[in-house]
Amino acid sequence: MNFVAIDFETATGKRESACALGIVTVAAGEITEAWHTLIRPPDNQYWRMNIEVHGITPAKTRNSPDFAAVYPEIKKRLQGKTIVAHNESFDRGVLKSCMEFYGLDYSELMLPARWECTVKIYRALGFNPCRLSNCCERMGIQLNHHEALSDALGCAQLYLRRKNATP
């Protein structure tokens, strides 16, 4: 089983405001890489409620690279891969919006129109509620919720364990 699990945190309600990214690579059913970066969002602007969720502040990203600068690393990890996310429409939307904002071509990533979604998978298995924290807790997966790398690792574990999941 080969896939990449991904999680973005955003600075505002705008999808192009990525401020953190976690990417976990799984090859042959084993986690082979866990990568994280902070990202300076446009104008380094934050909404207070977003800071309250993830704890990332303008001071933490002031000297971080913007999305365009980290894109080569993202492309290297995602291009042509099966992508998994918890609530994939959000993370896919953040990636697409960031790429559009910086004039990057999403199609060059060669990704499917929809990614694998652990929310949908676990909801279909009868889990309720299906927040990442709830699913991880019920599956015995350690999680520091709203930390991008921890969320990506949790998502990867959920996807790996989905065949043995019972609500």
Structure description:
- With 167 residues, the chain is of the alpha/beta class.
- The protein is 40% helix and 19% strand.
- The protein contains 7 helices and 5 strands; from the N terminus they run βββαααβαβααα.
- It has helices at 48-54, 58-61, 67-78, 88-101, 118-124, 132-139, 148-161, and strands spanning 3-10, 18-27, 30-38, 83-85, 116-117.
- It has a 5-stranded mixed beta sheet, with helices on both faces.
- Helix 6 (132-139) crosses helix 7 (148-161).
- The longest helix is centred in the middle third of the chain and has 14 residues, at 88-101.
Architecture blueprint of SSEs:
Blueprint: E1 3-10, E2 18-27, E3 30-38, H1 48-54, H2 58-61, H3 67-78, E4 83-85, H4 88-101, E5 116-117, H5 118-124, H6 132-139, H7 148-161
Parallel strand pairs: 1-4, 4-5
Antiparallel strand pairs: 1-2, 2-3
Main beta-sheet strand count, sense and barrel state: 5 strands, mixed
Instruction: Tell me the structural class.
Output: alpha/beta
Write the H/E string, N to C. Answer: EEEHHHEHEHHH
Q: What's the overall geometry?
A: globular
Task: Report helical residue fraction.
Answer: 25-40%
**Strands of the largest sheet, in order across it?**
3-2-1-4-5
Number of continuous helical runs: 7
Q: Which strand-content bin applies to the residues?
A: 15-25%
Counting copies of identical and different chains, the oligomeric state is: single chain
Radius of gyration: 15 Å
Find the count of extended strands (DSSP E, 2+ residues). 5
Regions with pLDDT < 50 over 5+ consecutive residues?
none
Distance between the termini: 23 Å
Mean pLDDT metric? 97
